[in-house]
């Protein structure tokens, strides 16, 4: 059973709160319209904040029921809403829950290259470095809840790249997909916590699901495929023959990127619990704003994934 993480209520408020959900109207609030049975809307005298009071009675129950129907997954918590939106953005061949048609132009044949895979690892590391620095710095207090979740990947990627280096591979500099995504989340994290949390969720959870599948596929391919030209041999009559040596790139090694300390499903559940608690303080508009960011998360991550085939 997942242990419920403790998050102090004061930590949950944004540095710059603009909308607060409150069960009772504060005494300095005045109604902007005649209160109705279903919902009373109050605006604080300080123009910055609006306070929505909880409705009571059957009208409230009906409104709540209606909103549950409107947002799939809502009854289970906000993570389920995020998951629902994400799963729909998968193609049918990526996941049976996917609804997106595969791209019109056919994807390149699944032929990963070691150079492409290294680019993918380097760019992924840049993104995880950035996400992990953001939650450490915690410009918004709720980010701090996502420090040391056990899902962190920057350190494990650093070890993997070091290993590749020891095997004689040269490690590329980060390329445009990783640089663009890192710059985007960095900027977003300073001003838009709901959108940032969407990227945080999708990046870590995608890696634990589809990311692991991709890792397995890549390592299977590399076990069989890679040949390195060792040297050329000069033959009589001017023929030159290249001597290729089978190079089992991964040679049975499981990369640290795909290993977690502890039980992964428990680590994921702990983070789901925290995400749900953080999102309890968001208005419906803020939740929708977070959900709408999912598409961007797919776009940026998709570009990085594509590096594997470059
Ligand atoms: C080739 C690309 C991808 C493949 C093959 C893939 C495949 C999958 C699969 C099989 C699942 C598990 C579904 C289940 O729970 O039964 C999954 C979950 C998920 N994927 Fe992907 N995916 C891919 C790309 C992405 C991308 C680019 C993102 C977003 C950046 C993403 C976000 C997610 C999320 C959030 C989940 C839910 C994880 C959870 O509930 O624990 N996926 N994916």
Automatic annotation (TrEMBL):
Keyword vocabulary terms for this entry: Chloroplast, Heme, Iron, Metal-binding, Oxidoreductase, Photosynthesis, Plastid, Transit peptide
GO annotation, biological process: heme oxidation; photosynthesis; phytochromobilin biosynthetic process
Keyword Plastid (UniProt): yes
InterPro entries: Haem_Oase, Haem_Oase-like, Haem_Oase-like_multi-hlx, Haem_Oase_decyc_pln
Molecular function as annotated in GO: heme oxygenase (decyclizing) activity; metal ion binding
Coiled-coil stretches: none
GO cellular component: chloroplast
Keyword Chloroplast attributed: yes
Enzyme Commission number(s) of this protein: 1.14.14.18
Class in the EC hierarchy, top level: oxidoreductase
Gene3D superfamilies found in the cross-reference section: Heme oxygenase-like
SUPFAM superfamilies: Heme oxygenase-like (SSF48613)
Cellular location(s): Plastid, Chloroplast
Chief place of localization: plastid
Family affiliation: Belongs to the heme oxygenase family.
Protein name: heme oxygenase (biliverdin-producing)
Organism: Centaurea solstitialis (yellow star-thistle)
Organismal lineage: Eukaryota, Viridiplantae, Streptophyta, Embryophyta, Tracheophyta
